[in-house]
């Protein structure tokens, strides 16, 4: 007993000493300060142009003429029955949704199969998905117009046909983002075991992909969908050359003819795009529970 | 009449042979374990039964139906994985009911069956939980229920207890065996843990380097190993160098001390290895048994048992064995000479050239 007590007595001062030492977290605190400074600078870099655009759309009240701030330029865009703002924006959202669906339908089975059975093909598939970064949109769109202007696929003859070409082109543009998002999602789950478990329980491929894989990479699909939506809403080159009545060319056209309205449109479309992303997030996460994978 | 038959099954991955000529017949309701070290081909064989790997040659028949080329979802074989492989997006009830839903069973029937299985695995109140809300042992029980829900012909378990801690492992092991007996389902169990294989199985298939080394009941495998590999892999062994004095009478010499073996097939004068299970060795003792003496090298007190290591002569090897602890026991001292006895029939004679994997007590501690 005495020995035991002695041993405890010997240890205690050492333990107290370590408490009395200068706080070792001073450096991290300074680091955290710098992190906040850099974050603040980044935030301002992003946020100031938005504030400036918003202010300019009020009639530029801080400018040399100093007019009264007015919302009439916003009203011109939103309330004018001749305004193309909403039809164009809705059309762009429609194209974006079609693009997201097509992109998911192509990328998920591809990325899944490459990861499950053909890992050797991964570098090749990755390279193919990067093609939109290699081929400039203006080159791609001329190729698309040439290919689909005559037989056997005269899609450019009709508005519907050119919209199909546009959705196809946007789907390719979304590949780098969608593939990486989905691939990361697949990496986070044990797809081989889940697939084999589903197979042994009698499931075929469609059920495995839709019932097991899709729900478990939902977050990855959402991030791929966000990126695709953001690309499609703002895209100009392809839509313009394909003569599609999407939002990008409208914004450009407005900028050529009006002074303050384009800035108003930018702010409103920015807000609406965020609302759309929120909606996707809300719908996509419906019923989603936080999950921590089991043993690996 | 065998229920599950594998005939001449082989699997090659390029030039590498993972399984060569695997033949096994299992009766209905039998519990068979594949036991062997990593890379011995046990999991590959199981995966061929499940349909995840296609055999390079041979046939797999279940209940008189050749399933060799059937896809995994057409085999009606349940499988439990080491990593549980529960669907994270589904509740416990949805996981268990998945196989029935795939088979388009009526909703009421699915619910009833899920309820039955939740009772069977003693988790009736966890139906609405998600896998991440369960412990490892509970997850594996759910995985077992899921594999049993659609009443498969054969149940396959691929090292199902490896990811669990020791205590849960033992209790779940007993639970698996009880459920298997209750349902009478033909089961193939893959493990590298000999204790699991011996305690669970009706028969054990010991595998090494893609080949079957021995098939037998746990009793046969442990007590009558037919190869040096089985002798050393299953259980622990002391290996002593000896030379044959008189093969006819089974007389051997271990560093000048004479002992007897039940049968000796090697010629007189040849070198052999004598393998002894540690539990067969006792301290002192009189009678007709073999008697060896040596110097105590080490005494380790382990609570319920005391492990003693004795060096027998120069270069003959060491004998390591355990004796039960009791408060009146006088622990032997290092350096003392100790006499040990064991019966002649306990001597397993191995070819001196046979490689003994480093699993025997002797190899571990030398």
Structure description:
Chain A is mostly helical and 296 residues long. Chain A is built from 14 helices and no strands. The longest helix of chain A is centred in the first third of the chain and has 32 residues, at 26-57. Chain A starts with a helix and ends in a 12-residue tail after the last helix. Chain B has 366 residues and is of the alpha+beta class. Helices cover 25% and strands 33% of the residues of chain B. Chain B has helices spanning 42-50, 92-102, 107-120, 136-149, 166-183, 194-200, 218-223, 228-233, 361-365; strands at residues 4-13, 16-26, 31-35, 57-62, 65-66, 77-80, 154-158, 186-191, 203-208, 211-216, 238-246, 251-254, 257-260, 271-276, 282-283, 290-301, 305-311, 318-324, 337-342, 348-351. A 6-stranded mixed sheet of chain B has the order 6-7-8-3-9-10, with helices on both faces. A 5-stranded antiparallel sheet of chain B has the order 13-12-11-14-20. In chain B, strands 15-19-16-17-18 form a 5-stranded antiparallel sheet, with no helix packed on it. In chain B, helix 2 (92-102) crosses helix 3, helix 2 packs parallel to helix 4 and helix 3 crosses helix 4. The longest helix of chain B has 18 residues, at 166-183. Chain B is elongated, with a radius of gyration of 25 Å. The A-B interface holds A 189-190, 193-194, 196-204, 207, 212, 215-216, 218, 289-296 and B 50-52, 71-73, 75-79, 81-89, 98-99, 102-103, 130-132, 136, 139, 143, 146-147, 150, 156, 163.
Assembly of the depicted chains = heterodimer
From N to C, what is the helix and strand string of chain B? EEEHEEEHHHEHEHEEHHEEEEEEEEEEH
Mean pLDDT of chain B: 87
The secondary structure category of chain A is: mainly alpha
Major β-sheet annotation of chain A: none
* Proportion of residues in extended strands of chain B: 25-35%
Question: Distance between termini of chain B?
Answer: 48 Å
Biggest pleated-sheet summary of chain B: 6 strands, mixed
Strand content of chain A: under 5%
CA-based gyration radius of chain A: 27 Å
Share of residues in helices of chain A: over 70%
Instruction: Quickly give the structural class of chain B.
Output: alpha+beta
Elements of chain A, N to C (H/E): HHHHHHHHHHHHHH
Number of strands of chain A: 0
Spatial gap, N to C terminus of chain A: 47 Å
């Amino acid at each position: 007993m005495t020995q035991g007590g002695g041993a405890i007595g010997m240890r205690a001062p050492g333990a107290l000493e370590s408490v009395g030492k200068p706080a070792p977290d001073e450096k991290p605190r300074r680091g955290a300060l710098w992190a906040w400074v850099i974050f603040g600078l980044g935030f301002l870099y992003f946020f100031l142009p938005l504030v400036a655009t918003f202010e300019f759309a009020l009639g530029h009240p801080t400018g040399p003429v100093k007019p009264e701030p007015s919302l009439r330029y916003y009203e011109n865009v939103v309330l004018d029955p001749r305004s193309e703002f909403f039809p164009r924006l809705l059309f762009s959202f429609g194209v974006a949704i079609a693009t997201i669906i097509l992109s998911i339908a192509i990328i998920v089975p591809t990325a899944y199969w490459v990861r499950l059975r053909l890992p050797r093909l991964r570098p090749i598939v990755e390279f193919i998905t990067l093609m939109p970064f290699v081929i400039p949109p203006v080159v791609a769109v001329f190729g698309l117009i040439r290919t689909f202007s005559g037989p056997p696929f005269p899609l450019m003859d009709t508005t519907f046909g050119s919209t199909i070409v546009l959705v196809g082109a946007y789907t390719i543009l979304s590949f780098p983002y969608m593939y990486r998002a989905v691939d990361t999602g697949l990496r986070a789950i044990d797809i081989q075991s889940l697939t084999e478990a589903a197979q042994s329980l009698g499931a075929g491929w469609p059920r495995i992909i839709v019932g097991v894989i899709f729900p478990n990479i939902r977050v990855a699909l959402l991030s791929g969908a966000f990126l695709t939506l953001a690309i499609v809403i703002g895209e100009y080159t392809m839509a313009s050359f394909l003569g599609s009545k999407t939002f990008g060319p409208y914004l450009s056209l407005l900028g050529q003819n009006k002074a303050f309205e384009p800035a108003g449109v930018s702010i409103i479309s920015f807000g609406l795009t965020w609302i759309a992303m929120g909606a996707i997030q809300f719908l996509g996460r419906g019923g989603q529970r936080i999950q921590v994978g089991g043993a690996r | 009449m065998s229920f599950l038959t594998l005939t001449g099954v082989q699997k090659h991955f390029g030039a590498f042979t993972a399984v060569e000529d695997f033949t096994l017949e299992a009766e209905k309701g039998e519990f068979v374990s594949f036991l062997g070290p990593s890379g011995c081909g046990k999991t590959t064989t199981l995966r061929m039964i499940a349909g995840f790997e296609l055999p390079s040659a041979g046939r797999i028949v279940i209940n008189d139906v050749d399933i060799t080329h059937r896809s995994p979802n057409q085999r009606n074989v349940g499988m439990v994985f080491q990593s549980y492989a529960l669907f994270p997006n589904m509740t416990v009830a949805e996981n268990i009911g998945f196989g029935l839903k795939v088979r388009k069973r009526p909703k009421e029937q699915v619910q009833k069956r899920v309820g039955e299985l939740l009772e069977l695995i003693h988790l009736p109140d966890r139906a609405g939980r998600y896998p991440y809300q369960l412990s490892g042992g509970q997850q594996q029980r759910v995985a077992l229920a899921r594999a049993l829900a659609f009443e498969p012909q054969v149940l396959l378990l691929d090292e199902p207890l490896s990811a669990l801690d020791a205590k849960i492992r033992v209790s779940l092991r007993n639970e698996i065996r009880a459920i298997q007996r209750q349902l009478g389902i033909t089961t193939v169990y893959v493990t590298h843990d000999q204790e699991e294989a011996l305690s669970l199985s009706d028969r054990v298939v010991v595998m090494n380097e893609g080949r079957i080394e021995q098939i037998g009941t746990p009793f046969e495998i442990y007590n009558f190993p037919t190869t040096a590999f089985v002798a050393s892999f299953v259980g622990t062994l002391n290996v002593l160098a000896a030379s044959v004095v008189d093969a006819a009478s089974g007389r051997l010499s271990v560093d000048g001390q004479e002992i007897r073996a039940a049968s000796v097939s090697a010629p007189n004068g040849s070198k052999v290895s004598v393998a002894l299970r540690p539990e067969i060795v006792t301290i002192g003792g009189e009678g007709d048994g073999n008697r060896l003496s040596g110097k105590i090298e080490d005494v380790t007190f382990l609570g319920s048992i005391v492990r003693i290591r004795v060096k027998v002569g120069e270069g003959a090897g060491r004998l390591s064995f355990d004796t039960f602890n009791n408060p009146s026991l006088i622990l032997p001292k290092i350096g003392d000479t100790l006499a040990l006895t064991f019966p002649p029939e306990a001597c397993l004679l191995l070819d001196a050239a046979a490689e003994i994997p480093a699993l025997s007590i002797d190899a571990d501690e030398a």
